[in-house]
Amino acid sequence: MKLNRRTARHPATYSAIIFFVLVVALIALATRPSQPEAGASLADVNLDSLTILHVGGGDLATQLVHRLEEAGGRVVRSPGIPEAPDLGPEVIVVFGGEWFEQRAYDPALHDFLRLASSRGASLVMADGTTTVFFEVLDMAGLYGIPVTETGEVRNPAYFNPALAGFRMKEVDGHTGPSFLLSMESSAHILAESLVSWIHGWSDGPLQPSTPVSEPHLRYVGEHNYSPLLDSDPHGRLNVTAAVYQLMYDGVADYDWYFYRIEVRSVSGAVAYSSAWRNDCTWAHHQVVDAGTNTWMGTRGPGTSGGTDTVHVFLRPWDTPIGSRAYDPQGWRYSIDGVVVLAQGSYLRHRVSWLHDIDRSAPTARDTYLSVPGFVVKTRQGYPCLVDAWYQVQFARQPLWWSTRTAGPSPTLMLDAFRGGD
Questions:
Q1: Could you tell me which CATH class the domain 40-200 is placed in?
Q2: Which of 23, 206, 219, 329 is the most exposed place for a label (fewest CB within 10 A)?
């Protein structure tokens, strides 16, 4: 098995930047708010109906399963593939990493993965070389790993996060894969990530149901990085990227993919009951193979400050004469106490957003959610290949301001492909 060792644009190392600025007055910290969407506690949801099928042991997998069991989940342990498994949407199959790697080419494992996925179960590999997880999904026919024209393998877990998950998710009547990848090695935080992934604490579909014969967006897939970055006691960064494809557009030569990016900066005040606040988040996106098969299109929001909310409009762009009309998609999100700086280049097919948070505003002490978005145009039938990387900075105020940068993240492959029109 050939593993993809692609080098990340930004290595996943934590760096600290400490500087001091004299302030005029002290600002009292608020008490820790209740923020279930941050995945702050397993107590936020009821796990009584959840079954965890633990296959193949493994230290991290065992710790993870134990945390879920403590929170009320029912656990079934098996040293190997169970002969008559009880599978369904309320089942999480947790594989020990070493066990899974050793059976990567086993047809019995491939059969089990297909059966579990067809019944709606969630599949998770904990620890080990998690690139193997997606390679096996590829071999089993559950997920085709994109490959560029130059032969680069676009494995979503190329940076080998501690946990990798896969399940088929239905949104607005359309089904697509949902990935969970987490760089955190704490079993408790991984358990929180699993629960939030299963219960879907995302803001939901981009658009309501539309007749299939009319231009509409079809759900393609979702990349969930929870947490992407974690720094105790400073805070966490969670990122979810949902991707949709424009269908029935009347254009035979091109496809359009709509990206909705949710970036959650969880302050230390929420995640760890500390004095650390949100300060800044950065979100960078770059089209791969730009100008040959793929192009960056419309994006939002623009640069904005001094308002409470910002509006994002997304629409297909550069559509030829004869294409079918399609209304722009849009949503709003709060920027109370936040300045948004949008940067990008249509010629270089990239876009970035800086959300600069007022450290004295309530937003700094809560979980801050920003929701930028963009559209990518591809040649018909060509996969949409996008690189992304994210960064967060937290701050605290004793007598002086001091800050710490928790990031940046590794490069993430927000790829999507759904043929047909």
A1: alpha beta
A2: 23
pLDDT tens, residue by residue, 27-58? 222 222 333 344 446 766 678 889 999 999 99
At residue 72, φ and ψ (nearest 5 deg) are: 115, -5
What does pLDDT average to over the chain? 83
- Strand boundaries in 149-293, DSSP class E: 163-171, 174-182, 216-231, 235-247, 254-267, 277-287
Alpha-carbon torsion angle 302, 303, 307, 313, nearest 10: 0
Please return the burial class of 84, using the count of CB atoms within 10 Å of its CB with bins 0-12, 13-18 and 19+: exposed
Domain spans of the chain?
A: 1-20+234-421, 40-200
How far is residue 176's CA from residue 144's CA, in Å, rounded to a whole number?
12
Q: pLDDT, tens digit, for every residue of 333-378?
A: 999 999 999 998 888 899 999 999 999 999 999 999 999 999 999 9
